[in-house]
Amino acid sequence: MRARSLAQVLLGLFFIAAGANHFVHPDFYRRIVPGYLPDHALLVAISGVCECLGGIGVLIPKTRSVAGIGLIALLIAVFPANVQMAQHPGLYRDIGSPAAFLIRLPLQIVLIFLVWWACRPAPPNSQPRLGRL
User: Residue 133: inside a domain, yes or no?
Assistant: First the structure.
């Protein structure tokens, strides 16, 4: 399996699991939503559904590009939750260390890049040609 194909499968499964986790452990996610945002429960539910749909979309070739764009937008939209944890680590001692919260910030950027790389349309010359082996 090529690296990009493997990344697509792993990203799809990751986002489906992460999205489902919003409904298994909603209190965790509501807790990290910055206080200036309204209706934490609704935002957690919306982001969970979007992660699941994005993960499914990554697994389907015809929807992969659109899913990638949506997931990148979602990762940017939820970035304030990571900033919230990094700025106020004392509020989250029970779920991680200050260092872990700081590491999440650049990791989110790496994840955005990985989604872009895995979901962008393949270059025309990489498509298999019919009739050639």
Answer: no
What is the rounded average pLDDT for all residues in the chain?
Answer: 92
Indicate whether 112 belongs to any domain: yes
What DSSP letter does each residue of the chain carry, written as one string?
Answer: --HHHHHHHHHHHHHHHHHHHHHHSHHHHHHHS-TTSS-HHHHHHHHHHHHHHHHHHHHSGGGHHHHHHHHHHHHHHTHHHHHHHHH-GGGGTTT--HHHHHHHHHHHHHHHHHHHHHHSPPPGGGSPPTT--
| Residue 131: per-residue pLDDT | 53
* Spatial contact of 58 and 8, defined as CB atoms under 8 Å apart: yes
**Residue 130 has what pLDDT?**
57
Q: Which domain holds residue 50?
A: 3-118
Only one residue has tokens 């309204």, namely 38
pTM: 0.87
- For residues 20 and 48, is the Cβ–Cβ distance under 8 A? yes
In a domain, 125, yes or no: no
Please write the tens of the pLDDT for every residue from 43-67: 999 999 999 999 999 999 999 999 9
